[in-house]
Amino acid sequence: EVQLAESGGGLVQPGGSLRLSCAASGFTFTDYDMSWVRRAPGKGLEFEWVSLAKPSVGGTYYADSVKGRFTIARDNAKNALYLQMNSLKTEDTAVYYCATVARTRCRGNACYPVEFAAWGQGTQVTVSS
């Protein structure tokens, strides 16, 4: 059974930092691209892709809204995915989900997920003064 367990969310002031973690089990971690996705309050079922990490070192991609502030990393030996979030803004407030990617699309040097295979339960990140 695929399990994805996020942790590390919380309340932080604008400009602050948080590090999210995702523990993965029940599948071969290196078979999948992994992604962070978020859902902001009041957005219903609208999800925003945040970042993607391919199994190989260096294969990381970001949405424009977080580029330069967030860093995704994966530890294939520990079956773990991370998201370091710096310079947080109020608009980063959302529930953040770890997800396995069923299909990735790449155009030039940019890659992004178009279909997800499994999701975690999410962790709340609130950026507020």
Please characterize this protein's 3D structure.
The structure is a single chain. It is built from no helices and eleven strands. It has about 130 residues and is mostly beta strands. The model has no long low-confidence stretch (mean pLDDT about 95).
**Secondary-structure element string:** EEEEEEEEEEE
The chain-level structural class is: mainly beta
The radius of gyration over CA amounts to 14 Å
Strand content: over 45%
Shape: globular
Return residue spans where pLDDT drops below 50 for at least 5 consecutive residues: none
In total, the number of strands is: 11
End-to-end Cα distance, whole Å, is: 40 Å
What profile does the largest beta sheet have?
Answer: 7 strands, mixed
Helix content range of the residues, please?
A: under 10%
Number of helical regions: 0
Mean pLDDT: 96
Sum this structure up briefly:
The protein is mainly beta and 129 residues long.
How would the blueprint of this fold be written?
Blueprint: E1 3-7, E2 10-12, E3 18-25, E4 33-39, E5 48-53, E6 60-62, E7 70-75, E8 80-85, E9 94-107, E10 110-119, E11 123-127
Parallel strand pairs: 2-11
Antiparallel strand pairs: 1-3, 3-8, 4-5, 4-9, 5-6, 7-8, 9-10, 9-11
